[in-house]
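User: Please predict structures.

Assistant: First:
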Amino acid sequence: MAYKFVDNYRERGARKKLVEELKLKGISDERVLKAIGNVKRHYFFDETFWNQAYLDKAFPIGEGQTISNPYTVAYQSELLHINKGDKVLEIGTGCGYQTCVLIELGAKVYTIERQEKLFERTSKILPYLGYEATFFCGDGSKGIAEHAPYDKIIVTAGAPFVPEILLRQLKVGGIIVIPVGDEASQKMTTVLRVSENEFDKIVLDTFRFVPLLGDQAW
């Protein structure tokens, strides 16, 4: 695949237009909108498909995975309420687009991907683009216990339930954002860890993600 890291007026204009579109769709957090405007989404596309990069659509990235549409990335990012310096676990690195948005928001990101080819590509490309994260290859449904607890956890694949093992890796006061449902559609779900053994759950809008695979998922 032909990846080319060039950003000119056409791409910058397309990002500005995308940000305006996301505002119209209800994204209101100015920090999230700025992050979306800063991340060069076309860098995650073969040059042949650059005309698709700033459409609000998901797109295949290989290994049966997709780059989420920008609205979904912005929606999940907004729900996380990232504070600068937050320690964030991302489950499902994919191509790294969401990772970059989290870093733009000031998060310290630990990210895990089960597909080895995606892990190898993304863990090389992101640092080259100036985005530093801690990368892991493995079963994200179990989290990364050795680096817990986390301020925030984001899951970028559809799960049949909220894994208890992930809830236990949250700090008290921490938030997990995860799509939960069947393989056809999921409800975006946020869980706040109120205390050691208390959790508050809110179920929100319907989305469709690729399935979360692993020991604590499908």
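Second:
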Amino acid sequence: MVKAIRIYETGGPQVLRYEDVELPPPGPGEAQIVQRAIGVNFIDIYLRTGAYPSTLPFTPGFEGAGEVVALGEGVDEFEIGDRVAYVGPLGGYAEARNIPAASLARLPKSFSFETGASMMLKGLTAQYLLRRTYKVKEGDRILVHAGAGGVGQLLCQWGSALGAHVIATVGDEEKAKIAKEAGAAHTILYRSEDFAAAVREITGGKLCDVVYDGVGRDTFPASLDCLKPFGLFVSYGSASGKIEAFDINLLSQKGSLFATRPSLFAHIARRKDYDKMTKDVVRAIKKGVLRLERPALFRLEDAALVHADLEARRTTGALVLVP
């Protein structure tokens, strides 16, 4: 038996239950890992609330790091004792778990488990946004919504390192400071300012090549007004609620724009892409392009409190549960 968080019905943070669950031996193609750190992400809230449907009951969590303690039939790429990190199927909020070995990546010895649990989902998200969805290059103007958030900070850091002029929206002055330290050249308080007008002023009317939007309802459709003709709107999250159906003619009216709603799991579906992207993230961290601050650490049993703070947007940076 191991301790885990279970969800039997969708709803608020109170539906997260901390209880004993049975952990069977790993099946064919699986590894069993003892988890040392577990990443908390906004997608966990989408599942908890039912915004993203999932079969009940389930254990939330897609990201973690730990040590391999058992191997199922057919697994030969890992050994017992290996330090690993992952983005994988649901089941992360637990002391130990079984997971497909194909979802695991070796964790460099110089990286802590806390770093491993906070770099995978957010780091790979930043990678596919900046290097695959739109290949940011020197001189590009990019708008990053929620620039003080976990992914937002990485987009600011990596985007500026690539030579882009980074503009970030944030919720308050404290978060503005965080986004600027991460590499944003300009910050906009989107709750009190007309951010589209501010972008137009900052860019001298040239607007942006791409907008990265993990906020959703609160920033749409004004995000489209931040793009130059043929610019790209990238919706990768919906922290404020999902974007409702809209008239696609808006894209024509606002400058023959492009819009996309990518997902990390589509980008890492092929093992060779997963490996290549992970190596790119690790390399960026080792070179100092991505500067991962020590994440805020919480006990696994306090997952409900962490969800409440994250949902209310009272947090900055990465959040990690420790069993």
